[in-house]
Amino acid sequence: MQQQKSFEQHETGTLYLVPTPIGNLADMTPRAVETLQQVPLIAAEDTRHTQKLLNYFDIHTKQTSFHEHNWQNKRTELIDHLLAGHDLAQVSDAGMPSISDPGKELVAAAVDNNIVVVPIPGPTAGVTALIASGLVPQPFYFYGFLSRKKSEQLEELHQLSTFRDTVVFYEAPHRIKTTLQHMQKVMGDERRVVLARELTKRYEEFLRGTLAELVSWASSNEIRGEFVVMLSGYTGDITAVDQVNDEEMVAISPVDAVKQLIEAGEKPNVAIKQVAKQRGLARQDVYNQYHGLEGK
C-alpha cells in the first residue's frame, strides 16, 4: 500500500499535472498560472505551443519536451530531476495531461518511485462538452480516440454499441465523416449523437441529431475544428442467446453462423468470437468475413 500526503514535506520533488486551456486562454486558472511560475521546469508536449501560453501569462520558466515520440528516453531524465528534489510541472497542448495526451507514462514512473503527484483542476474537453450535450451526463464512458484502422474501429464500435452509458469520443476533423459513417453502419440511422467542436472558442458549435442527420451534415459541409463526439446510451433489449447446436453451426458458413446468433439476439462481436472459438478460426478472420473486409 502506498499513501500520499500531497502537501507535507518530501525528500523528492513534486510532479504537478497542470491543465491548459482547450481554446479560450481566459480559462487558465490562477493556481495553474502560479504553479507554472514557481516550478523550475515544465515538461511540455510541444514547447513551441506552450511558449505562446507562457508568453501570454508572462511566465519565464524553462521548458523541456515530453511527448509520444521521446517519452521512453526522456522519462528517466525527468524522474531523476524529481528524485533530486526539484519540482516539475507537466502540460499537454490543451486540456488535461494523460487524457488522450502524453502524461500517463511519467505519472506511472513517478508513483513507482514514491514521488508525489499533484493534479491541478482545470479544463477538459470531454466533460465540458458532455454537460452541454443534452444527453444523460452520468454515468458516462470516456473512450478517447477510436482506432484509425477501419476494421479495428468497426470492432470497437460494435463493442460499444450496446453500452447503456453515454459514450464520449475525440475525433479529428479529417476523420469525423468516416467515423460517423462507421457508427451509422454499426448502430443504424436513429441513434442520437451530439458533436461539439471548437469548444470555448469564437466558433464553438454543438450539433445534435441522429446518426443519419449528422452523416448528412458531415457529407455536405466543410469540416474544421477538433471534435468531441457523444453517443447516447443504448436503450434496447439485450437478450442472452440460447445455446445453438454445435453440429448445426459447423454445417453452415462462418458468416451464416454469425448471422444466426445475431438473429437470436446476440451482439455481433460476441457472435463472432463464439463462431471463431467453435471452429478453431482466428477471430479477426471471422470478423473480416462477416464485414466483407477480406483483401482490404
From TrEMBL:
Q: What is its EC number?
A: 2.1.1.198
Keywords, A to Z, come to: Cytoplasm, Methyltransferase, rRNA processing, S-adenosyl-L-methionine, Transferase
Q: Where in the cell is it found?
A: Cytoplasm
Q: Determine if Transferase is one of this entry's keywords.
A: yes
Q: Which InterPro entries match?
A: 4pyrrol_Mease (IPR000878), 4pyrrol_Methylase_sf (IPR035996), 4pyrrole_Mease_sub1 (IPR014777), 4pyrrole_Mease_sub2 (IPR014776), rRNA_ssu_MeTfrase_I (IPR008189), SAM_MeTrfase_RsmI_CS (IPR018063)
Major location category of this protein? cytoplasm
- PROSITE patterns attached here? RSMI
Q: Which residue ranges does the record assign to the Tetrapyrrole methylase domain?
A: 14-214
**Molecular function per GO:** rRNA (cytosine-2'-O-)-methyltransferase activity
Q: Which reaction does it catalyse?
A: cytidine(1402) in 16S rRNA + S-adenosyl-L-methionine = 2'-O-methylcytidine(1402) in 16S rRNA + S-adenosyl-L-homocysteine + H(+)
Enzyme class of the recorded protein, top EC level: transferase
GO terms for cellular component:
cytoplasm
Function per UniProt:
Catalyzes the 2'-O-methylation of the ribose of cytidine 1402 (C1402) in 16S rRNA.
Family in the record: Belongs to the methyltransferase superfamily. RsmI family.
What's the protein name? Ribosomal RNA small subunit methyltransferase I
Q: Which organism is it from?
A: Leuconostoc fallax
